[in-house]
Amino acid sequence: MAERVVSLWCTVHAILLLVAIGPATAQTAVGIVEHRVLATSKTSTMEKELNAAAEAGFRFSAVMGGETAFGGNEVVVVMSKGPLRGRYAYRLLATSRTSTMQRELQQAADAGYHYRGQTVFETLVGGDEVVVILERDEAASQNFEYKLFATSRTATLQKELLQAGLAGYEVIGMTVSKTALGGSELVAIARKSRLP
Question: By C-alpha distance, which of 39, 77, 30 is closest to 58?
Answer without folding.
Answer: 77
